[in-house]
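=== RUN LOG ===
request id: a7f3
mode: sequence -> structure
chains: 1
length: 215
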Amino acid sequence: MTTGIRVGVIEDHPLYRDAVERLLTEANGVELDTVAGSVAQFAARKRSDSSGVVLLDLRLPGLQGAPAVMDVVSMGFRVLVLSAHSERSEVLGAMAAGASGYLSKDCDADEILHAVRVVADGNTYMSPMLASHVLDAFADRNSGPTIELSTRERQVLSLVAAGERDQDIAQTLDISIRTVRSYLDRIRDKTGQRRRPELTRYAIEMGVTYGRVPA
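=== RESULT ===
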């Protein structure tokens, strides 16, 4: 028996969560998977053999924003952000953290289901009203000088963009905190960006994103 696309939901607003659950339950070719109010709750409830797409709100209790995206991606899911907030920094931050798509909560049910299917097929989906954020970022990237970073420097920078602390980066890459800071010093020297928010913006605009860095 062929099952549909498995879709989980992480949303802390009960009414909106119930509406999304109902939409997914009634949709053809979609199988509702784990539903939770936080990333921690989702991790505790998810099935061991789960895979597929997760609809993720960014403003959640506990882990939220880019780190929440990164955490769900690390569990093996493709993340489709569904957020009431569509500021440029949040959209680009989520995509830098590994999200496969971003929707505004103003979108209708048909667009949510369309985006789920696009993302499940391994593609990226962006609401038309938010696409300008990504296009602007690529324009910024292409207008500046090219700076060559090593593979490891790109990995470190991608994790900075995803909101990770030095100790978390060290653990993820299996290197020491001292080595992480050494890489950060080199990145700062090459890019001229000194503060962490500046490095994050640079990473997003240069397309250095978590989950898309060569091994």
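=== NOTES ===
The longest helix spans residues 177-191.
The two ends are 37 Å apart (CA to CA).
=== END ===
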